[in-house]
Specification:
This protein is mainly β and about 425 residues long. The chain is built from one helix and 29 strands. The chain has a single domain, classed as Neuraminidase (6 Propeller).
């Protein structure tokens, strides 16, 4: 029996035989969506290696995050990883044929290392690029990080967002985003965060912020961008959690006229909230399945995959196969979100990237995939990109790309 399809998705309200067979082919090998649920527009998922590291042919590339440019080109930032929170200078590369071939990774000069007093270096990490159509510029936004020799400085000075703009084929200077608020005196950042560009050119995003010795909070942020300078216009009331470091790495999207926020935390949960304007957020709720059972997550980010007909979350979670994998950071999953209840539809869950190895008896040889990104590259295809990391196995990882193909066009792709 075919799952129901909405009039919005099929204006005639009828199925042709070809269309029915195409839809069923997309469901092959995945859980069937019940008749009580909205049809799931995912057709299939394929996976490929973008840059090789496992075979010793290159470094371990990390933080691969892409954005769509006009003409179907895709722009990606990435950087090497050599230890816990220890990253090399930011690089970028491009493709003009949807990933069939890529340019070689090239350093981003304004986002390199800067020498500080006492042998310390200031670097940049957690960069997310985004094309800003009103100014025809790519805003590459991350935050600063400090290194003492070949390691992450455990006593980090205050930290803030750092960005550079790529426009007309050239990089502009390094900038620091300022926010004159004492609540962010130790750190404020949008690191690894998804942002939304509004029709007027302003940018909706979110900060995780805090003072030394206290858990961080999260708030909505309205920012202005003129193609060169990013400015904070307004921030909303905070969401708070008194566990571990608090609320971290928020990501934002918009779906059916509302804003949605997903947040990393350190209490074995991830959290979700909803807002009408992106500034005033409802109290956060722990992610749960549609039957109310909590989804066990361990201090790892989640990101949105937004289709015009359905909203998805991409995430990691606890499972029998990854019982001893650090923070359960493999496999990488996705599931459809009920935008009313803010719960995950269990029957729609799929594996985006499978766990490779034995996560129970030999977890040190399982590549971790907790830092990833989601990009809509056409109405028919979206990507999840991730860099494998094996910190306990001393083996380089591959940079991976998963292609999520849609059974119906994704009308939210605007570039």
């Amino acid at each position: 029996m075919l799952p129901p399809i909405s009039q919005e998705r099929c204006p005639t309200g009828k199925w042709s035989r070809r269309r029915a067979l195409t839809f069923l082919a997309g469901l092959a090998g995945i859980p069937r969506v019940s008749a009580a649920q909205t049809a799931d527009p995912v057709a299939d998922i394929s996976r490929e290696v973008v840059l090789r590291g496992r075979d010793g042919g290159g470094p371990t590339w990390f933080h691969p995050r892409a954005c769509l440019l006009p003409g179907g080109k895709v722009f990606m930032t990435l950087q090497e990883i050599a230890g816990s929170d220890y990253f090399g200078p930011v690089h970028f590369m491009q493709t003009d044929n949807l990933g069939k071939t890529w340019s070689s990774p090239t350093p981003v000069p304004p986002l390199g290392r800067v020498a500080q007093a006492g042998g310390v270096e200031e670097g940049v990490c957690d960069v997310v690029p985004q094309f800003h159509a009103p100014t025809e510029a790519v805003l590459a936004l991350g935050h600063n990080v400090f290194y003492s020799g070949p390691k992450f400085s455990r006593d980090q000075p205050p930290r803030w967002p750092v960005y550079a703009v790529w426009k007309g084929g050239e990089w502009g200077p390094r900038h620091a985003l300022t926010w004159d608020d004492p609540r962010g005196s130790e750190i404020f950042t949008n690191n690894c965060g998804q942002r939304v560009i509004r029709p007027d050119g302003d940018i909706m995003m979110s900060f995780t912020f805090g003072v030394k010795g206290k858990p961080r909070a999260v708030c909505g942020v309205l920012a202005g961008f003129d193609g060169e300078t990013l400015t904070v216009k307004k921030t909303g009331a905070p969401l708070e959690l008194a566990a571990g470091r608090g609320l971290l790495e928020p990501s934002l999207t918009t779906f059916k006229g509302r804003y949605f926020l997903t947040i990393r935390a350190e209490d074995d949960h991830g959290y979700v909230s909803v807002s009408e304007d992106g500034l005033d957020w409802a109290p956060q709720k722990a992610w749960a399945w549609d039957d109310g059972e909590a989804v066990s997550m361990s201090t790892t980010q989640q990101h949105w995959l937004t289709h015009s007909e359905a909203l998805y979350l991409v995430y990691t979670r606890k499972d029998a196969q990854n019982a001893k994998v650090m923070r359960w950071r493999s496999p990488l999953w996705m599931a459809q979100v009920d935008p009313v209840t803010l719960r995950l539809k269990r029957s729609t869950e799929r594996i985006v990237f499978p766990l490779v190895g034995d996560g129970v008896n030999d977890p040190n040889k399982v590549a971790l995939m907790g830092n990833f990104h989601v990009t809509n590259v056409s109405p028919h295809e979206s990507w999840v990109t991730v860099g494998e990391w094996q910190p306990r196995n001393q083996i380089h990882g591959d940079l991976l790309l998963a292609r999520i193909r849609w059974a119906s066009p994704n009308e939210s792709v605007l570039v």
